[in-house]
Amino acid sequence: MSIRRAGYRFLLSHFLPAFRKIPVKRQFITSCNENYPILVYEPWETNRRTIIAFSGFSVHGYQDERLAAVSRAFTRLGFRVVTPCIADIDQLLIRPATIDQFAAVIQAIHTDSHLNPTRQSLGIFAPSYSGGVAMLASVRAAIAPRVRAICLLGAFSDFRNVLQFAIEHQEIDEYARYILLRNFLQQSRFHSDEAVELLNIAIQDNGLKRKKPLLPERLQTASITTSQFFRQLMQDTSFRSKLSYQAFEEIDHRENWMDHFNLNGKLANVNFSVSLIHGHGDRVIPSTESVQLHEALHRLGKNSQLTLTRLLDHGDLILDREFVKEVNKLASGFGFFIDSLCIPQLP
User: Fold this and answer.
1) Residue 97's closest CA among 257, 235, 279, 326?
2) How far apart are CA 174 and CA 94, in angstroms?
3) Could you give the residue ranges of the DSSP H alpha helices within the chain?
4) What mean pLDDT do residues 83-111 have?
5) CA-to-CA distance for 117 and 96, rounded, in angstroms?
6) CA distances from 71 to 275, 292, 304 (A)
7) Which letter, b or e, does each residue of 160-190 get, where b requires 16 or more Cβ atoms within 10 Å of its Cβ?
8) Is residue 276 within 8 Å of residue 294, measured between CB atoms?
9) Sheet architecture: strand order including 147-153
10) What residues pair up with 123 in beta bridges, in sequence order?
11) Alpha-carbon distance 285 to 276, whole Å?
């Protein structure tokens, strides 16, 4: 099938109601003596290949309905889709060890006789922070041969750029800022149980889109010191920047975040196709991250396609006056990924 046609089939499967329910099984997969809950979406007919669909930072975890809709759409095209529960992602934690967890899950699913009976290399779909982590796991020498194609939606290339964007731009999506600040407070000398609790409530208010947020009431009962600290953290860009960069420097010194979360110089093992899809107006991870990654892959002669669209903000669909033109681009982005998975694998 043509690349754009494959993409349109995916988009129609995603957004149009289906009259036939996709069977979903809940089970576990074991890797490195750790059990990971997984959801397995089984196709009705041809099983072209297995796709791992990693969840992003969502308060709904790996059972987020947005990821479920994507998984069902891939399954209607004949793919088996496996959605793993990565504890760090479900708990909204940022740490380098998550890359190891992604790599372990990719390896375990690739070698599983039920999830991948033909032992073909896998497709990987991952949004946002998880997209960058999935790419960092996939470029490892032991993992790259197990990956056939990867589709990253609004992912990062160098986490330092995301940090600067999230901390210094007041107009950023607050949900991402809350998650970043909570991780900084949890993992640095600025730790405060009460401040972390306030950020957790803010994350839940935003992520669950509560009609009546719980944060204002909780701020009233918080200690004066914590309440003032929290408000300054939210409203004072200079204060927030200073604290965040100090926390990042401390954590980086201890765990080397700057190297672990940077794809520069780590792309030599890429032998799979890479589809990069990013919203022009992304207010969480700027689209320049995908542009830079695509340019780096292109310089190395890797098979990569970049799709920048006005139909996405940070993964959610938005309407645009040039809808037809933009949906064509979006179809090409997903179609490039799907087509790469449908091409027969050479022995």
Assistant:
1) 257
2) 17
3) 3-15, 65-76, 87-90, 97-111, 128-138, 159-168, 174-187, 193-207, 215-221, 224-235, 237-255, 257-260, 288-299, 323-342
4) 96
5) 31
6) 17, 28, 22
7) ebbbbbbbeeeebbbbbbbbbbbbbbbbbeb
8) yes
9) 24-31, 34-41, 80-84, 50-53, 122-127, 147-153, 273-279, 304-309
10) 51, 149
11) 13
Q: Rounded to the nearest 5°, which phi and psi values hold at 278?
A: -145, 140
Rounded to a whole number of angstroms, the CA Rg of the chain reads 20
Domain chopping of the chain, boundaries: 3-157+262-342, 160-258
> What is the DSSP annotation of 71-85?
HHHHHHTT-EEEEE-
* pLDDT of 343 over the 50 cut: yes
Spell out the residues 6+ positions from residue 19 whose beta carbon is closer than 8 angstroms to its own. none
Structure tokens at 321: 């006056």
CATH number of 3-157+262-342: 3.40.50.1820
Eight-class DSSP state of 145: G
Residue 272 three-state SS: coil
Mind listing the pLDDT tens digit for each residue in 126-179? 999 999 999 999 999 999 999 999 999 999 999 988 888 888 877 777 888 999
